[in-house]
Design the sequence.
């Protein structure tokens, strides 16, 4: 079983160091500390375990070191930054594992960009040596790329020429869409196994600058100092120079403690999230329990409560449960999303979050909730939301219902069953395509978004009973008491009987109506092509390029093209 | 060998009839008239041959019957509109053929929407019976869908539940992006083998209306009359009632005669297009020859010249050559694009086209050129443009260079070698994503588009010699006389040695920077997922759903999902 929980004291492959307003993430992969047997992580190549540490480090910087303004990503290995995903690991992995591996790496890269865009931390890739394949893809997820000019170090994407697959974690899309490298140059670069060095790489826009070995460290330090100086006003506040006690507390980080989880044969129990696996029926129940009443409502109190604060804890648990389902429970094809708790208490949390969204901690909490929900959108399993008495699909938890492929809401006038919207449904938790889930739902009738969001502030949120929810178009089906059990059972049986591949492609198409962004291009277009290629005999067949990499035998291709 | 040329008198499966301003396209598939052995085209199911006729009919309506304002697509079979792609044909086809099949069908559907959007013809799907799978996808490419309410007829997308593949020709994307069906309803509909009938289909937005059998024909006729009446002013002009001799000629169609093509073992010679196949080296030379000097410059003269007019003939030939390469020459992985002729003469044609772009025929010619160029963008082979003395990559033909993955331009000051832009490069020939190829090229520096397009009207177009072209960023490489031969040879050898699948995925990612549209979502996201699924054991393996369709055996799935 692969665990996604770690912490800096457990890192094997990365060193996280904080100096004032600068974080340094140094890659120093231990070649024998692999997640599986059969390969060595040479030359700072990585497997999923290496990226789990990186994802954790980025998350921790955001919560534990809010004063950080610049993050330098570099390597402790001489002459090599990072050689990308380990090829022997890929060559010996199942198709499902390869897909999961690429998706998680993509999410970590997008998390870097999310931090940069929304929290203003600047990511600097300090390439002290060659960055190839996934190594360059990590660099290109950063804001700025500097490459040492030592006559040898290069940036490269050798996947196409050497391995017969794509750079699978966003490289091609970011080449032309983020760095806007001219498409013919991107074509040349992506077919050039040895890549490009120094000035040519700069001229083509692949890096931002290049410095001789002797000047490299000073140049990076200089650039980092510039970034920190740009923020000096903000930082003097952050560092508590002057201001009240509240101000000095303001930028103290919040420690992310390990999530307590009790594991049984057929499930996982976190504090607020429960997962029950029905493996024989290939579905799971995933329940999120709402907050307790009267949670703190000021940032100071929340900061003191730290990671025990419900929205942070519950969505970290949800995130972990989703990753567990993806990687450790591949046979589970359908997840029934459920909630338990008080709608009032969820809406009260949302009111606190909205009122304090300019505070760094509240902002980070909301951004983390948004990332967990996007993880759900991008999970290649079906999701059905089940609304029953005692559930609390309100505000932030209503997003679970809106993210689902379908929803079922019991229609029983004798019971109190409701869902509710809050201001958080209006924009704070966007999908990868930039739309809210309400906008996505009502793409045919945009005015309905406003109608539904027409929140009555006094009541703390607009509520819908089953008939109102159905009339508003918020739910899919509203079976009555007599039909409920049979209808749910049949829906589950039917869904889990269908081709898992066809469902994956169907859901990837139906979940993302409307605009596309760089993120959705990476998860849609690029990932789909990569998945296709990963399955092809030309990559993974007996004579495929991935199979034969590093062997004395050469790849032999079926050259058909269309 | 599959031929893409046909004409109404040769149609086996469609009847095209024109009455005044209305065209009627009636599907009546002959089950034994198949392109290959081993299947029967029952229930108006189709193979590539059926769609080649449809594509031809749509093209002909645009050129031969410009007065048509409404196109009704219906079926001559009782109780069935169209059952979609023939499953047994798919089950027995190679992966490459399935990919080509879906792509061509997609292009035909997009051609319907192109006609509707740019030429204002309204397409009415008159579903006199069930439209399932590709049958419904044909309907959803139309502007309006009417379904008979006979207690039995339905619309459906049974691919996921019955076949374990996707509706592969745009259905899922058009469901949520064009008809904007709510995503949870789209999910239910796309997993419901029997589909939806009458009022429910209307309520969910899958059709526009439904009429009882006895009233169906009258309702369609009524709607068509409405459309024609909307255009009555325009039509009285078109029909030559009143006005000069010029006016009455104005809306006389231009007949599309068969393309003359001389076929040899290693090539094809059209009038303006030559194709030389180097099969042992897996590449082809595709040469477009420019126009003769002093072509007519008024619409009337052009109309009299008809389909012999260079831009129409040359781009129809280019289109046919591309389709031939895709379907009949799968082992050709690289196409070297070349041109021969006078830059002046190409620019002169562009000046005529631009000056008369409001004339229906000139508009249709430009739109046809744009479609042929998009066919090139979407061809899964590499394209290199080769600029040598005597070539004429100018204006409309410069698009060939801009569409290429790379370009090579000889740098020899002793020879006259040039390329040139014209106003046509400024917007008339957009890619599927809505950008011009110049915008796509200079996505990092949008101001360069204007610089390059800064046409000197006196000179009839701005020209660039090799050094100027390189400085302007219009070409990739400019080898000199000494290096040229070796460099080209090595580039070709290298390209054709790489994994064809990896190149396909790479090119699909690098060619389409920037925005995505419904078209690019269909060719990118949806097609890539479909290609992936088409390759999976769950579809095409021994126990796959496609393999076992219609057999007593049942599909058995590997249920892993991520």
Sequence:
């Amino acid at each position: 079983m692969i665990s996604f929980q770690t912490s800096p004291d457990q890192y094997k492959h990365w060193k996280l160091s904080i100096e004032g307003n600068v974080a340094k993430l140094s890659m120093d992969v231990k070649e024998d500390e692999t997640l599986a047997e059969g390969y060595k992580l040479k030359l700072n190549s990585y497997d999923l375990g290496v990226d789990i540490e990186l994802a954790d480090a980025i998350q921790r910087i955001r919560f534990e070191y809010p004063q950080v303004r610049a993050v330098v990503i570099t390597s402790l290995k001489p002459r090599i930054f990072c050689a990308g995903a380990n090829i022997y690991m890929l060559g010996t992995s199942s198709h499902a594992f390869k897909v999961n591996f690429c998706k998680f790496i993509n999410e970590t890269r997008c998390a870097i960009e999310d931090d940069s865009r929304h929290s203003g931390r600047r990511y600097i890739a300090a390439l002290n040596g060659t960055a190839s394949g996934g190594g360059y893809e990590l660099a290109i997820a950063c804001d700025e790329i500097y490459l040492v000019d030592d006559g040898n170090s290069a940036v490269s994407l050798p996947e196409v020429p050497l391995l017969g697959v794509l750079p699978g974690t966003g490289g091609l899309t970011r080449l032309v869409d983020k760095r806007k490298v001219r498409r013919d140059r991107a074509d040349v670069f992506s077919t050039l196994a040895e890549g490009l060095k120094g000035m040519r790489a700069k001229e083509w826009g692949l890096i931002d600058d290049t410095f001789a070995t002797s000047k490299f460290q000073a140049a990076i330090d200089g650039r980092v100092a510039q970034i920190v100086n740009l923020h000096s006003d903000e930082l003097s506040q952050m560092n508590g120079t002057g201001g009240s006690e509240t101000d000095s507390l303001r930028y103290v980080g919040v420690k992310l403690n390990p999530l307590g989880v009790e594991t049984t044969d057929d499930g996982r129990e976190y504090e607020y999230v429960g997962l029950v696996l029905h493996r024989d029926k290939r579905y799971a129940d995933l329940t999120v329990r709402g907050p307790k009443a009267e949670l703190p409502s000021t940032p100071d109190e929340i900061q003191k409560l730290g990671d025990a604060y419900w929205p942070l804890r519950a969505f970290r648990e949800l995130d972990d449960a989703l990753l567990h389902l993806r990687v450790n429970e591949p046979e589970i094809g359908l997840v029934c999303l459920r909630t338990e708790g008080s709608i009032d208490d969820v809406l009260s949390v949302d009111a606190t979050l909205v009122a304090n969204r300019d505070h760094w901690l509240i902002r980070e909490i909301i951004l983390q909730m948004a990332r967990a929900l996007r993880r759900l959108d991008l999970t290649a399993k079906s999701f059905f939301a089940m609304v029953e008495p005692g559930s609390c699909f309100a505000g932030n938890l209503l997003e679970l219902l809106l993210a689902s492929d379908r929803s079922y809401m019991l229609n029983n006038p004798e019971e109190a069953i409701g869902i509710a919207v809050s201001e958080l449904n209006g924009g704070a938790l966007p999908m990868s395509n930039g739309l809210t889930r309400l906008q996505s739902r009502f793409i045919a009738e945009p005015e309905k978004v406003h109608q539904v969001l027409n929140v009555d502030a006094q009541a703390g949120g607009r509520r819908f009973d089953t008939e109102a929810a159905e009339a508003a178009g918020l739910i899919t089906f509203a079976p009555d008491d007599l039909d409920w059990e049979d209808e749910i059972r049949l829906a589950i049986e039917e869904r889990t009987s269908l081709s898992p591949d066809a469902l994956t492609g169907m859901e990837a198409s139906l979940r993302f109506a409307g605009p596309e962004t760089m993120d959705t291009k990476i998860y849609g277009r690029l990932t789909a092509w990569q998945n296709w290629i990963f399955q092809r005999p030309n990559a993974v067949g007996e004579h495929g390029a991935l199979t034969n990499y590093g062997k004395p035998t050469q790849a032999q291709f079926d050259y058909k093209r269309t």
Notes: Chain A touches chain B through 95 residues (CB under 8 Å). Chain A has a mean pLDDT of 95.
